[in-house]
Amino acid sequence: MTTRKLTLITMLTAMAIVANIIENSITLPLVFPGVKLGLANVFAVIALYMFGAKEMLLVNIMRVLLASLLSGRIFSYTFFMSLAGALLSSLVVILFKRRSGLSIIGINCISAAFHGVGQILIVMIVMKSTEIVMYLGVMILLAIPTGLFTGFLSKMIFERIRKENYNA
């Protein structure tokens, strides 16, 4: 790995951590618990488009670990929800990017939906109940506008990076 690539991945990870911490500090009305914009995912998707699958996984895993450590939630219930969502959404997005013609915006929508699926799976395991699966419809429905928002943001940032020739 070149110094330039390592620096860019580190910067994307740091930005994802900051976005995650900021987003976690914003208190939204509890109309839809567990639903967030997913701003940290913007930087993971950019890593996927700039470098590849391994780098996206690296950004997501480091973001979850370090943001949880910094916020004092390491190895908590929310840590495992976040990790499951990040890993499942990353793996699914990697497959979709390789096998479909989806744009970066579509990839973000898929990512948002499967992040919710990963979270619901952890809740089902912890609660030893399948009743929470009913909430999955809400999570997936709300993944569309949040995925569109983060998708447009990812597209703008990625195009700017390419334009400025920061690509590794």
| End-to-end CA span | 10 Å
Overall mean pLDDT stands at: 92
Alpha carbon gyration radius = 15 Å
Q: Biggest sheet: strands, sense, closure? A: none
Helix/strand-derived category reads mainly alpha
Poorly predicted runs of 5 or more residues: none
- Helical stretch tally: 6
Number of strands: 0
Q: Give the topology string: H per helix, E per strand.
A: HHHHHH
What is the 3D form? globular
Features of the shown structure:
6 helices, single chain, mainly alpha, 168 residues
What does this molecule look like?
The mean pLDDT is 92. Helix 2 (39-50) packs across helix 5 (104-127) and helix 2 packs across helix 6 (136-163). The longest helix is centred in the last third of the chain and has 28 residues, at 136-163. It is built from six helices and no strands. The radius of gyration is 15 Å and the shape is globular. By secondary structure, it is mainly alpha-helical. It has helices at residues 3-25, 39-50, 53-71, 77-99, 104-127, 136-163. The N and C termini lie close together (10 Å).
SSE order and pairing:
Elements: H1 3-25, H2 39-50, H3 53-71, H4 77-99, H5 104-127, H6 136-163
Helix pairs in contact: 1-2, 1-3, 2-3, 2-5, 2-6, 3-4, 4-5, 5-6
Structure described in brief:
By secondary structure, this protein is mainly alpha-helical. It has six helices and no strands.
